[in-house]
């Protein structure tokens, strides 16, 4: 009887407003997910079926489209993107966490100026800085190398990473630092043994956001890299499309493989992403 009363109360609390919100979220989810579902299904169709049976399932599931796409160039683009993304993420986490550690521990006018400078970096539009960046990288002979992308991605992702990490670091109790100092722990020891282990959620959040940006960035990857052997997935797919011309099944298979790593990353780390952003915003 008690369970029936509780369920009735829950039903009563679920009013008309909640119903519309739920329906709206379901419609939004369908709008977002259906193109991905269509891409996966169409990636295993033949050329004729893509045009003659657009919305249906394939009569024969051509899984070999993925092997063809991998052999025709996706493999090299995938490896290039993996290298650029990994170096970018590691650098952003290390540099950003050390900078955030300093900004969280000390209170001076110089720190305030540094925060204003970092916020200004978040406002820099990539299109505005494109020509100056190209000139700088050309003078350093970094154009048409992976380092042109890595250094650019690091500079664009560091401001957000520093602000997120600093907001989280500010929530760490000062008593822990004082106890560590009494025990003879150095500044770097406090950073490595206290701040980093206690900040895993926000660090994972930074990893996810940085990975998503570096993996999918298109503008710099197209302009700074000329060699087809060095292209990452976003810019490489353009050549992949031109090379395949009308082989849409193989092209869609390549798109599925290029999107899969980030989709899986978000699925497995979404709880840490939400937790890191919410705790950092509240505690900071």
Automatic annotation (TrEMBL):
<feature type="transmembrane region" description="Helical">
    <location>
        <begin position="248"/>
        <end position="269"/>
    </location>
</feature>
<keyword id="KW-0472">Membrane</keyword>
<dbReference type="InterPro" id="IPR035906">
    <property type="entry name" value="MetI-like_sf"/>
</dbReference>
<keyword id="KW-1003">Cell membrane</keyword>
<feature type="transmembrane region" description="Helical">
    <location>
        <begin position="77"/>
        <end position="103"/>
    </location>
</feature>
<dbReference type="Pfam" id="PF00528">
    <property type="entry name" value="BPD_transp_1"/>
</dbReference>
<comment type="similarity">
    <text>Belongs to the binding-protein-dependent transport system permease family.</text>
</comment>
<dbReference type="InterPro" id="IPR000515">
    <property type="entry name" value="MetI-like"/>
</dbReference>
<feature type="transmembrane region" description="Helical">
    <location>
        <begin position="20"/>
        <end position="41"/>
    </location>
</feature>
<feature type="transmembrane region" description="Helical">
    <location>
        <begin position="110"/>
        <end position="134"/>
    </location>
</feature>
<keyword id="KW-0813">Transport</keyword>
<feature type="domain" description="ABC transmembrane type-1">
    <location>
        <begin position="78"/>
        <end position="269"/>
    </location>
</feature>
<keyword id="KW-0812">Transmembrane</keyword>
<feature type="transmembrane region" description="Helical">
    <location>
        <begin position="194"/>
        <end position="215"/>
    </location>
</feature>
<feature type="transmembrane region" description="Helical">
    <location>
        <begin position="146"/>
        <end position="169"/>
    </location>
</feature>
<protein>
    <submittedName>
        <fullName>Carbohydrate ABC transporter permease</fullName>
    </submittedName>
</protein>
<keyword id="KW-1133">Transmembrane helix</keyword>
């Amino acid at each position: 009887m008690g369970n029936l009363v509780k369920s009735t109360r829950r039903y009563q609390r679920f009013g008309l407003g909640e119903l519309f919100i739920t329906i709206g979220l379901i419609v939004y989810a369908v709008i977002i997910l259906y193109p991905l579902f269509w891409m996966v299904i169409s990636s295993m169709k033949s050329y004729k079926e893509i045009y003659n049976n657009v919305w249906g399932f394939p009569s024969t599931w051509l899984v070999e489209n993925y092997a063809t796409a991998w052999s025709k160039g996706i493999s090299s683009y995938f490896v290039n993107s993996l290298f650029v993304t990994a170096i970018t993420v590691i650098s952003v986490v290390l540099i950003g966490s050390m900078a955030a550690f300093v900004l969280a521990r000390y209170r001076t006018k110089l720190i305030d100026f540094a925060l204003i400078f970092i916020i200004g970096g978040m406002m820099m539009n990539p299109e505005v800085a494109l020509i100056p960046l190209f000139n700088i990288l050309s003078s350093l002979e970094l154009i048409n190398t992976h380092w042109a992308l890595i250094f650019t991605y690091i500079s664009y992702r560091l401001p957000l990473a520093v602000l997120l990490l600093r907001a989280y670091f500010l929530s760490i109790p000062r008593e822990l630092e004082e106890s560590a100092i009494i025990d003879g722990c150095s500044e770097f020891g406090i950073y490595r043994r206290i701040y980093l282990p206690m900040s895993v959620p926000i660090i994972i959040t930074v990893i996810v956001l940085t990975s998503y940006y570096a993996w999918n960035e298109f503008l710099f990857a197209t302009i700074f890299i000329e060699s087809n052997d060095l292209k990452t997935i976003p810019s490489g797919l353009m050549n992949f499309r031109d090379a395949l011309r009308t082989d849409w099944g193989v092209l869609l298979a390549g798109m599925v493989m290029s999107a899969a790593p980030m989709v899986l990353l978000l699925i497995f780390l979404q709880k840490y992403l939400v937790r890191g952003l919410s705790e950092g915003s509240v505690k900071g």
